[in-house]
């Protein structure tokens, strides 16, 4: 475990914290979830143990987000409530990191002076040293603009034993006008392929069956690496190398950018047995006018060409997408362009968002074009209803087929049911008898609901 040794050598462990309890609270995307796994890994390297909840924690880390609706209000509301948490035990430590901390910097402690440490997205591997400094010298804010160390080098404490995130790239070189990521996560930096392969092998050695490659723009992976000639399809090559790993069963990736999908990647998805038959193609809007205003780098026609290209190579692929309803300036005609693509592409599922302005983004300043809230809600509901019909119909194609399901956890609907995913990503429910979390189970799909499949073990 070379990675652990490397980080440990840079941490000054404080013996007085050994045995203390930590808790990590995460807001936001998969990148934050995975960063939180790294934070937990470093806390445990420091000798702390995980608490069941913040109530019995000595050290609490809040991993913040700026993407979700009202993220600022939620963050400062949460920090307001934690003033009391802190005052209940004088030696408690409250740490705040993530995208909102990177954006707000010293403002976090201005608004919540009971916070002990504020750190940004670029220096999270320094968390233990910053905690030590705060104990010696008092509260501090350290947010830097340049990456100090790839967070990928830190050890992780994962939530799941059979599935793991694997960061292949951090940052983003695009400038989508609704997105804060480029300003809080910096430009794209790809990890060396050898590091990624080594980490994947280590994960498999610890029982991981499925890895999800993680990055803000995964399919542009490798453009900044000087390892091959520039025409080399880096991402497809990475998939090929990962596919060779013995014991690894499934490879997924998120999130790609439509403009960066090359045929080689789609062929790799089709031909590599471990790469799952699922592609996320984030549309955002079907209107060429709005796509230009969003700086997405494609228009309606180009997006349709990408969908056609993908479906011509893998006709039975599962497609998913992201859509923002009510981006500034969206007219009925623009929304109808979005619905054209929804009807044409027949996505398996859609992550839908109602536009809300996020401070620090270009769209925040498009106030004169903001769409009224009622209209956004109405369009959102229309899209949701339409997509429920499409998803429901798409799920039915699996009835009568044999699939393998990776069992994830107990269903919220029943204590007797496990939930997991088939290869192409659809949520599947199965009776618990003879099955355990982490199993890859061969099943027959016997039924479907609008939102998930029902399976029986073969
Ligand atoms: S591609 Fe656009 S939406 Fe995605 S992280 Fe980069 S700027 Fe944000």
Could you explain how this protein is built, in words?
With 458 residues, the protein is an alpha/beta fold. The protein has 14 helices and 19 strands. The strands form 5 sheets. A 6-stranded parallel β-sheet has the order 2-1-3-4-5-6, sandwiched between helices. Helix 9 runs parallel beside helix 10 (263-271) and helix 13 (332-345) runs parallel beside helix 14 (373-396). The chain is globular. The two termini are 38 Å apart. Residues 1-9 have low confidence and may be disordered. Bound molecules: iron/sulfur cluster. The site of iron/sulfur cluster (SF4) has 10 residues, from helix 7. Iron/sulfur cluster binds at residues 172, 174-176, 179, 181-182, 216-217, 257.
Q: Helix count?
A: 14
How large is the share of residues in beta strands?
15-25%
Mean pLDDT: 91
What number of domains? 3
Task: Report the end-to-end length measured between terminal Cα atoms.
Answer: 38 Å
Outline, from the CA principal axes?
globular
CATH superfamily of the largest domain: tm_1862 like domain
Task: Report the uncertain regions.
Answer: 1-9
Proportion of helical residues: 25-40%
Strand order of the largest sheet: 2-1-3-4-5-6
CATH architecture of the largest domain: Alpha-Beta Horseshoe
CA gyration radius, whole angstroms = 23 Å
CATH class of the largest domain reads: Alpha Beta
Classification by helices and strands: alpha/beta
> What small molecules does this complex bind?
iron/sulfur cluster
Strands, count: 19
Main pleated-sheet profile: 6 strands, parallel
Q: Report the CATH topology name of the largest domain.
A: pyruvate-formate lyase- activating enzyme
